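Service request form, structural biology core

Requester: graduate student, group of Dr. S.
Request type: structure prediction, single chain
Budget code: on file
Notes: please return the result as structure tokens.

Sequence provided:
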Amino acid sequence: MALGIYFPFVGLTTEKYDEAIKRLEANGAGAPKGRNFHVALETEGQLQVFDIWETQEDFEAFGSALMPVLAEIGVEPSEPMIATVHNQIEG
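Core staff response, request fulfilled:
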């Protein structure tokens, strides 16, 4: 059962997000196993992230790559909101 995961980051600027993506790609974690969808939402230069993951295990495995990158770029992670995906419509 897929999971929708919303990250309400504080202090994640567009520049820091772009740097995080660059570092994740360089580490081979730019397209992690089990992540079906990723979007960065911008409001006044601050970003939040919404992902859809196949399993909790896949999401947690990605954390081992993501958390050090966030620490390196100075972003303090907040507790994500996790919900079961009821429906997903493409297009």
